[in-house]
């Protein structure tokens, strides 16, 4: 059982430098608290602290005072976060253009009655104008299956359109 656990273990954790795990255990809480006080968001604080620990881990061999380096990394991450938010507010992204939905008609009602895979094949073929091989990739099946789905879907639509 231990052999299986060792094989599944994350190799980066096994290779972690001596002292890094204790730094993480001792400093995670205080660093999240610091980041929270600087960002006013617990979720953002946790994310920034995780990123700071990654930076410390990457530079571990060159760091003399790990707690101070970590604290500085957290403060810098918080400053970068605020800088990004400021720029996002000053230069807001343009909202995407409104989506034009097709006019509902009898065909949409018939399409809604089809099984999901047939409907997907027909919509991808006739509304998205994809080739059979592209539809096969999108649906995760063979091109022959796509042709069958389209054929059966069209037959079911024709049957539904007959008075």
Which characteristics define this entry?
163 residues, mainly alpha, Arc Repressor Mutant, subunit A, 74% helix
The amount of helix comes to: over 70%
Rg (CA only) = 28 Å
**Name of the CATH architecture of the largest domain:** Orthogonal Bundle
Task: Point out poorly predicted stretches.
Answer: 1-13
Give the SSE order as H and E letters.
Answer: HHHHHHHHH
Sheet-strand content, in percent, reads under 5%
The secondary-structure class comes to mainly alpha
User: Which fold does the CATH topology of the largest domain refer to?
Assistant: Rna Polymerase Sigma Factor, Chain: A
Name of the CATH class of the largest domain: Mainly Alpha
Chain-averaged pLDDT = 87
Biggest β-sheet strands, sense, barrel = none
Shape: elongated
Number of helices: 9
Q: In words, what does this structure look like?
A:
- The chain is an all-alpha fold.
- The chain has two domains: 80 residues, Rna Polymerase Sigma Factor, Chain: A; 56 residues, Orthogonal Bundle (Arc Repressor Mutant, subunit A), CATH 1.10.10.10.
- Helix content is 74%, strand content 0%.
- It has nine helices and no strands.
- Helix 3 runs antiparallel to helix 4, helix 3 packs parallel to helix 5 and helix 7 crosses helix 9.
- The longest helix is centred in the middle third of the chain and has 25 residues.
- It is elongated and about 80 Å long.
- The N terminus is likely disordered.
């Amino acid at each position: 059982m231990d052999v299986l656990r060792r094989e599944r273990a994350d190799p980066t954790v096994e290779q972690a430098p001596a002292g890094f795990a204790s730094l993480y255990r001792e400093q995670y809480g205080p660093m999240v608290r610091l980041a929270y006080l600087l960002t006013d968001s617990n979720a953002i604080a946790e994310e920034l602290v995780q990123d700071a620990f990654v930076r410390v881990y990457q530079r571990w061999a060159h760091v003399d005072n790990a707690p101070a380096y970590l604290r500085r990394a957290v403060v810098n991450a918080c400053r970068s976060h605020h800088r990004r938010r400021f720029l996002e507010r000053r230069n807001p992204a343009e909202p995407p253009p409104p989506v034009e939905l097709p006019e509902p008609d009898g065909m949409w009602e018939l399409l809604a009655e089809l099984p999901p895979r047939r409907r997907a094949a027909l919509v991808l073929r006739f509304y998205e104008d994809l080739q059979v091989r592209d539809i096969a990739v999108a649906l995760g099946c063979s091109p022959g299956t796509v042709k069958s789905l389209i054929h059966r879907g069209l037959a079911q639509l024709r049957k539904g359109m007959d008075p």
